[in-house]
Amino acid sequence: MRLSDLQLDIFGVRLIRDGEFNSLGSFSREKQNMLVFIEEEKYIPFILEDKSKYSSVICRSEFLSMIPPHMGVCISDDPKLSFYKLHNYLAESCPSYHILPETDISQEATIHNTAFIDSHVKISKGCIVHPNATILRGTILEENVVIGPGSVIGGGGFRFIRNNTDIVPIVHVGGVLLKKGVEVHSNSCIDKAVYSDFTTIGEDTKISNLVHIAHNVVIGKRCCIPACTMIAGSTIIGDDVWIGPNATVSNGLVIGNSARISLGAVVTKNVPSGMTVSGNFAIEHSKLLRFIKSIR
Description:
With 296 residues, the chain is mainly beta. It is built from three helices and 33 strands. It is 11% helix and 30% strand. The N and C termini lie far apart (63 Å).
C-alpha cells in the first residue's frame, strides 16, 4: 500500500513524500516496511538504524529534516492520534488487515455445549474447551490445548488514546496462538495482538486461574504462571520461567530463560536469564534479603 492511496486528510495528515508500506506498527514490532508515528525526537534514531524495518512515518513538521530520504513522510499536529485513526479505519474497512484464520474445528476436540466458539478460529485435535469458555476470532489452539471454565481467549486488549476530552478505543486486529500442550485454567484472559501478529503462548506452558495476559505478549515453552498474575503488553518471556502468584510484570520487558519472579513481585525492568527477583519494585532476590536483614 502507498501513502498516496489513502485519503489522508480525513486523518489530520498531510502527505509530504510518498512511500510504500506493508503494515502499521510500533518500534517494538518485528516486521519489515512499516508505517510508524513519531511524536518525540528520541525516536528518530530507531528509523535511522534499520532501513528495512521502517519505510514510512507520520511525524510533526519540526522533524521533517531528520527523516531519511528513502522514507515516505506525512506530517500531523498529533501524529499518534492520526496514526491510530488510520489504523482504526483500516481495521473497519479492510478485512485483510485482520488475522482471520480459516474456521477449522477438529472432530477430535472436546468442546462443552456452553462454550462460545467464534468464526475464524482453529481448534486442533485433543483440545478441551470447558464450560462457558469463550474463544474469539483470530485464535489458534494447537493440539492438546486445554481452556478452563470461564476463560476468554482472543478478546480485544486495553489500549486507548485521548482526543481532547474523548477517549478513543484502538481496534485490535491480531490473534492469539496457544501452542501444543498449553493449559489455561478458570477465568483467565489472553488478549489478541494490536496489529496483525499473535499474542503467543509456547508449548506446555501452564496458566492458572484469574491470570491476565495482555496484547502482543510472547511467552516461551514450559513456563508456569500461577493465579492472579498480570503480564502487561508486549512483554517477552523466555522458556522455563516461573512467575509467582499475584506478580505483576510491566509492559515491554524481556524476561530471560529460567528466570524466577517471586510471589507478589512488581517487575519494572528486564530480568536476565536464571535470575530470581522479588519485591515491589522487584530487585534481585538476594539483594532484597540482605536489605530486609539490615532493617530488622
